[in-house]
Amino acid sequence: MLYWLLYQRLFVHFPPFRIFRYVTFRTAFASLTAMFIALIIGPFVVRQLREFQIGQYIREEGPKAHQKKAGTPTMGGLLIGISIVVPTLLWADLSNRFIWLALFATIAFGSIGFADDYLKIVNKRNLGLTGRMKLVLQFAAAAVIGIVLVWLTARHQYSTHLIVPFIKQFRPDLVIEAFRTSPTLWPLAFAPFVLFVMLVIVGSSNAVNLTDGLDGLAIGCTVIAAGALTVLTYLSGHANFSEYLELQRMPQVAELTIFCGAMVGASIGFLWYNAHPAEIFMGDVGSLALGGAIGTVAVIIKQELLLPFVGGVFVIEAASVILQVGSYKLRKKRIFKMAPIHHHFELAGWSESKIIIRFWIAALVFALFALTTLKLR
Predict the structure, then answer these.
(1) Is residue 104 within a helix (H) or strand (E), and if so which, with residue range?
(2) How many other C-beta atoms are found inside a 10 Å radius of the C-beta of residue 181?
(3) Which residue of 71, 102, 284, 291 could cross-link 113, Cys pair, CB 3.0 to 4.6 Å?
(4) Going by C-beta distance under 8 Å and a sequence separation of 6 or more, which residues neighbour residue 230?
(5) Cα distance between residue 190 and residue 302, in whole Å
(6) pLDDT for 213-263, tens place per residue?
């Protein structure tokens, strides 16, 4: 909105407003706007959640130290969502379809998380939507994103080719060419691509959700991952940088840098209240929305295969749960004291603050490694 007003309308009358054409400038403003929105309305949100008695229910089988957190206001992801959506609407070019796709992912996955959190509060226990129902809704939202990307591919605004880290020339296409020319089988040609998109986005959403178990852990890792995505998005949309780094050149993707910047700012603002000891928890409304947004951005900028490095801690947390469940079902033995793995370290005697900070360090190392791979091709 401000981009349209200040640049597209008032620029001709006041030439200094040309500065608002630059993505880097608007990204900085979007990030600051998001952070200040979160900081300013944060206390109000905390008070309202307390008044409505929207408190977190702690599962009994978890670490006993967590029982004292019972009743801490949850659903703080609403604060994150507002702090991402509003600055994006203010500073981004709203004629850009990728912006709306990223906003859709944030709102859709956030709505699923909201329903899950709401049921937990109504039922007064740590169980909301069933796992199956949650996955069905997540896959449905991700399928919509995949179908829209297929539509953009048909208009030559997107590509279904993958960018493989470390290998310059190998760019496989997730489309069955034999079906592509057939009018009746054309939808099947893009089925592998849509399925891949669904797996990436749903996997990302749930990985962030599993990481959200300690004060500030998930949101701190999100700041780092979103920061890395901000850099990757800007490079993918920049003509000179994308050519130099041999990335797929997508001019319209550059506008997504503003969305990523807003995600960084919103996460920093929320961390102010979520840092240990937390005054508010993000809940599923926050973790699912952030994970869905991160996965969607990675898909749009063609860095799906780099996403496990960008969000390395999220992957480790999700993998620990998969390994724990698989091991118990197959061997009736547990690999970790408790999954996700941050609870394993808690039960091993690590303090909560030590786990959080060390996981942040690991997240930063993963993100820096992801950025270095751009040149290692």
Answers:
(1) helix 97-123
(2) 9
(3) 284
(4) 27, 257, 260, 261, 264
(5) 16
(6) 899 999 999 999 999 999 999 998 887 877 777 777 777 899 999 999 999
